[in-house]
Structures are given as structure tokens and as C-alpha cells.
Amino acid sequence: MPRDPVIHSSQPSAADSPFDVADEVDDAALAAVMRRVPLGAGVLAGAAVALLVLGYLLIYALVFIPRGTVG
């Protein structure tokens, strides 16, 4: 039979009460990060869209144009 886990009452967990955990975020550092994050997300989204468009154009140029008209 499995044994019961040992509970250490002298070692409280930070998950017991989230209100006891200090918020150590500096407001200036948070503002600096929030200036960069949207830019990075936009660059990532733009690169993904550019790769999709490039892939579509490559398929069009390498598959459909050489095939010519059907019929």
C-alpha cells in the first residue's frame, strides 16, 4: 500500500496563499518590456504571413504555370 505523504508544517508553500507572495516587478522594467513585446509579436506574425505568401507563390509558379491550361 502506498504511504501517506509527509506533511512538513514548518515549510509553508507559496501556493497556499497567493496574497502572501510579494510582487517584485519594477514598474519601470515592466514598462520597458511592454514597449518591446508588441513589436516582437508583430514581427513574428509578419514573418509567418510572409512565409505563407512566399509558399503560395512558389507553388503557383512551380506547379500551376508549367502545367498550362487544362482542356
Could you give a short description of this structure?
By secondary structure, the chain is mostly helical.
What does it look like?
It is a single chain. The chain is mainly alpha-helical and 71 residues long. 58% of the residues lie in helices and 0% in strands. The protein has one helix at 27-67.
List the helices and strands and how they pair.
Blueprint: H1 27-67
Features:
71 residues; mainly alpha; 1 helix; elongated
Low-confidence stretches: none
Run of helices and strands: H
Largest sheet: none
Taking the alpha carbons of the first and last residues, their distance comes to 75 Å
**Tally of alpha and pi helices:** 1
The radius of gyration over CA amounts to 28 Å
Total beta strand runs: 0
In round numbers, the mean pLDDT is 80
Helix and strand composition category: mainly alpha
Q: How helical, in percent, are the residues?
A: 55-70%
Instruction: Tell me the β content.
Output: under 5%
- What general form does the structure show? elongated
